[in-house]
Amino acid sequence: MFADNSQTPGLVPVLPAMGLVEARDPGFANPERQATMSELVPYFLGYGKVERNWSDTTLRTYGNSLRWIIRIIGDLPPQRIRLEHVLRVKADCVRRGAGNHHTATVVAALKSFLRFCQLSVGLETMDVQQIRCPRIPKTEVLYLTPEEVQQFVAAIPIHKSQRGFDLKWLCFRTLVEVLLGTGVRISEGLSLKRTSVNFQTGEATIVGKGNKERVIFFSPRSLNWIKEYLIRRKDGGESLFVVGTNGRPLTLSTALVWFRRFREMAGIKKKVTAHVFRHTVATTLLFNGCPIGHIKDILGHERLITTCNFYLGTDKRAAKKAHRDFLDYERAE
User: Fold this and answer.
1) What mean pLDDT value characterizes the chain?
2) Which end of the chain is more exposed for a tag (fewer CB within 10 A), N or C?
């Protein structure tokens, strides 16, 4: 997980405090030399995995972002990074046509890395408060109506004949029903095992975002689809969702290809992705009167503000009714 200590000779004064190396390590021959970004990045990613419980996706994104930054500004010691280097990174994002989301991710990776160098390694770096991420305008939450949900699932050909099922598409239909019946992220759904689901309680325990364990709840409809699917499987695979007769786990890349395929077949104009089903669960709960705090728990958000920022104000019907009921100048007298 961590880089070979013999290749990072400038860390002897600081890494012992992290518990990563011993000060007498013979590989640190020149304690006066300043370690560069590329030498410290493996330690930063190791810290993120062990101490912060970052997901593999976050680790991969931050690692790629920092390697790209190194190519732009050079392999500098963190102490030498200045605001002009940050501006150069942002300018290169603009030159390449990167959007605000991508630029914000790159800048966030640099801020997190410098904060790690300050607090965990003990280096004197620039004040990260000076580094500002680009403002990302709030966009409308994309979700499906009940009619569009039915349109999408109806496009999945689960039957080979009147009595026979196509297991590949039955697998996908069941995955869609699980996403719609739980609100889980696609990665969380694909991580489920056969034994994960408690059919009596309608629950399962998963390891979600940030490697945090949480309980998810299945709708009766999604449980029925899981039962139907498992009854017809003949393989011995452990995963809940598999492809082929040998029970190979369904991969994220394959599932995403299937989503694109059936979006086109269903003729839905909206960009239907796995995450849109998560938004659909949240907005359906909200429109039906579910308290926002319960929606937070169902979705597995760590903070209530995250749920509020995404979904409060989504139901324009309620706003329109309030406008009609309360905007009355004659009554105001």
Assistant:
1) 84
2) C
